[in-house]
Design brief:
The protein has 125 residues and is α+β, with helices and mostly antiparallel strands. Helices cover 45% and strands 12% of the residues. Helix 4 runs antiparallel to helix 5. The longest helix has 20 residues. It is globular and about 40 Å long.
Length: 125
Amino acid sequence: MSLAYFIVLDQENVPFDIFVNGKFIAHDADKINKICKKLQLNDLDYYIRIPFDDYADDFEFESESEKWFDADEGLEFVKKLKNYIQGNPKSVKSSEGVISDLNEYIELLKKAKLTNAKFHFQIDM
């Protein structure tokens, strides 16, 4: 299986496809997090939510409620990353792939904004 960062929305039946690739983001996550630090942005991990309900019984802890973020916040975050990587293509292993993933995030977050949906990232392993 291949690692990927995908977007989850707080609304289940939205009138658009929510699929995004996210594989290039996952493979360059360490470098992207360094870029975030340089730009004084929250890193990818800040926006990730693990579905603790799936694991709560195994580890005997209460699941924390999922945290959701406004689409505007996601758009601002993704656009800043995209602008930096476009200007500094050697800052990641695959700038074309990462920018492609970021463009998919932008399109999805724009649609989410129109339906007032909130988002977070999840990792598909």
